[in-house]
Amino acid sequence: MSHAEPFAAPITADQVDLSCAFGPLRLRTPILTASGCFAYGQQFADFMDLRQIGGLSTKGISPEPRHGNPLPRIFETAAGMLNSIGLENVGAQAFLSEKLPFLAELDVSVWVNFFGVDFQTYVECAKTLSEGSREAYPNGGGIDVLEMNISCPNIKKGGIEFGTVPEVAHRLTKACVEVCELPIVVKLTPNTSDVVAMADAVKQAGAAGVSLINTITGMAVDVRTRRSRIATTYGGLSGPAIKPVALRMVHQVAQALPGFPICGMGGILSGEDALEFLIAGAHCVQAGTINFSEPSAALRITAELRALMAQLGIRSVADAVAILEPFPPEPPFSATGPGSR
Amino acid sequence: MDDGRGIAYVSRVAPAQFQVDVVANRPLSGGYFVLELRSQAPNPVAEAVPGQFVMLRGEWGRDLLNGRAFSVLQAFDSRTFSVLLKVFGRGTALMQQLQPGDRMTVTGPLGRGFKAPNPERKQLLVAGGVGLPPLHLQARTAAATGQAAAVELFYGGRTAADLVLTEDLEAWGIETVLATDDGTRGVQGRVTEPLGARLDRAAASGEAVEILSCGPTPMLRAVRAIGLAHGVPTYLCLEEMMACGFGVCLGCAVPVYGDKPYKYCCTDGPVFEASEVRW
Q1: Looking at this predicted complex, what is its ipTM?
Q2: Cα–Cα distance, B60 to B17 (Å, whole number)
Q3: pLDDT tens digit string along B176-207?
Q4: Is A152 a catalytic residue?
Q5: Do B17 and A79 touch (CB under 8 A)?
Q6: Per the residue annotation, which of A20, A125, A152, A284 is the catalytic one?
Q7: Of A123, A191, B113, B259, whose CB count within 10 A is highest?
Q8: Is A78–B250 a contact, with Cβ atoms under 8 angstroms apart?
Q9: Strand locations in chain A (E)
C-alpha cells in the first residue's frame, strides 16, 4: 500500500487557524460539546473557562418540563455506555428565563437542542425558543442554532417516524423552519436504514445542516437478576464504541450532499478523533460522553487538534474538511506478472 | 450552606479535577483495601465533609469509560486523602492492582454530606460493608472536636472479616456495636436488631436521637423502615450508578416524594432524608 503524501511541512501551532464556518455561522473553533452531556453548561464552569470552547449544545428542551425515566438509567459497556434518561429537562420557558442568560454571557455558539412529543409541539417549541431568544436578545447573541432532535427513542407518538421516515422528517423540518428565524440543524439517528435519504429530506426542507449521530439503540443484561441493565430495557449507546459507525455516516452524507454542513459526533475523545471526523466530511464536531469523566475535555481536544494540524501542516479547518484520499488503484490482475515470460 | 433540610453543613466547596499518585494500597481483611492518594499541589478534597465523595479513574485507557464514585474515608492534609474499596466489578478490580506511584484522576469533592455531630441530638451511625467511610469520617470528626460521646456506631457485616478499621473507633473512644450475620464477631444477626433496641431505649428515656446510615441498599431500606417506624430523623447516604458525579449525566436518579419524582444522588445527595426517599 502506498502512503499519501503529507499535506505540507509542519507549521507552528499558532499558525493554525481554528476558526471555521458552519454554513452561515462562524465558530471560534470546531470543537463543541454535545447535547445531554453538558446539561445547561453551568456545572462545567468549575472545571474550565467555558469561553474557550467553540460552542455547546444544551440538554434537549421540550415545551413543557419533563421528569426522567425510572432507574437504572445508565450502564457502562465496553468502551461506551448505555443511557435512558428520558429527556428530562426544565421546559422551554424555564430554559429561556433561567438557563439562557448564563449561556448568552459566554459568547460561544449556543445550540439549543429541542424536541416535542408530537408534530404540533415540535413546531411550538421551535417557535417559543426562537421568539424568546429574539425578545431577550434583539441584537443577536442569544440562541445561535436550534438543534432539532428527531432521533430520540423515548417519544411515544410518532417519535420513531420523525427520525426514520424521510417524508415525515421533511414535513416536520419544514414546519419548524417556517416558524423560526434561527437556523435549524437536525440531529439524525443512526437507527435508520438510509441516513443519506434522511439528510437529503431535511436539507430540502430548509435545514441549515445536520448533526450526526445520536446514540445507537442497545441493551445489556444482568444474568443474575435476568433483568435488563436499563429500566426501560433499551438505552442509547454512546462513547468510543460508536465512533466507527458515526464516521461512516458522516462520510456517506458528506459524499452525497457536498458542502451541506455536518456536525459530527460519536465517541470523540481526542484531537485525532476530531480530525478524523473533519477529514470524513464534518464541518465541526461535538464531544459528548467524554465530558462526564473529564469535564474540561473540550479544551484538551481543541489543543490536541491544533497541535496535530500543525504537525500535519494543515493551516485551517476548511483545509481539513472532506479531504479523504482514495486508495490508488491496484494494477489489474493477470496470470503472469511483468517479470515472467 | 443550609438548604432547610438540615443536611449539608458547609458552604459548597467547588470541585476540581486533578491528578494524584497512589501513595499506598493497603489490603484489609475481607477483600477490602484502602487507597491513599496524594496530589502535587493542594486539592479541595481536604475540605470534604463525611458523605461527600470523589470520582476516581486510573490510567487504563477508555475501555472503562467513566470514573467510579467513592466516599472520602480520611483527609490527611491538603494534598492527601484516602478511600475504602472492595472489588465489585471491572473498575474496582483494576484499582486493587494499583501500586504506589501509579497515577489516577480525581474529581471532587462532590455531593452534600451528613450534618455535623452536635450535642443536642445523639447521632446513631449505622454502617454496612463499603458504606463505612462516611460514618468512620463522621466518628473521626466527632472525636477530633471533643464530641466522641455525641455519636454511637452500629456496624454490620456478613462475617468478622467484613468489619474493618474498628481499631480506629476504639482509639477514638466511640461507643460501637458490631454485628455479623454468622456471629463470628459482635452480636449475631443484622445490625438493624441492636439499632431497633437502641431506639426503643431512647424512646423510653426521652433521649433525642437521629440516624445517619450508609451501606448496601437492602440494609438502608431496613434502616429507613426502622427510623420511620420510630419517628426518628433518619438520613441515608445512597449509592447509585453515576457517570459524571456533578449533575450532568442525570443517571443517578433517586425516586423521591415532593415536587418532582426524582432527585439526583450526586448533587442533591448522596445524603437524603429517609422520609423523602420513594422506596
Answers
A1: 0.90
A2: 17
A3: 999 999 999 999 999 999 999 999 999 999 99
A4: yes
A5: no
A6: A152
A7: B113
A8: no
A9: 20-22, 25-27, 31-33, 55-57, 74-77, 80-83, 109-114, 145-149, 184-187, 209-212, 216-218, 221-222, 227-228, 235-238, 262-265, 284-287
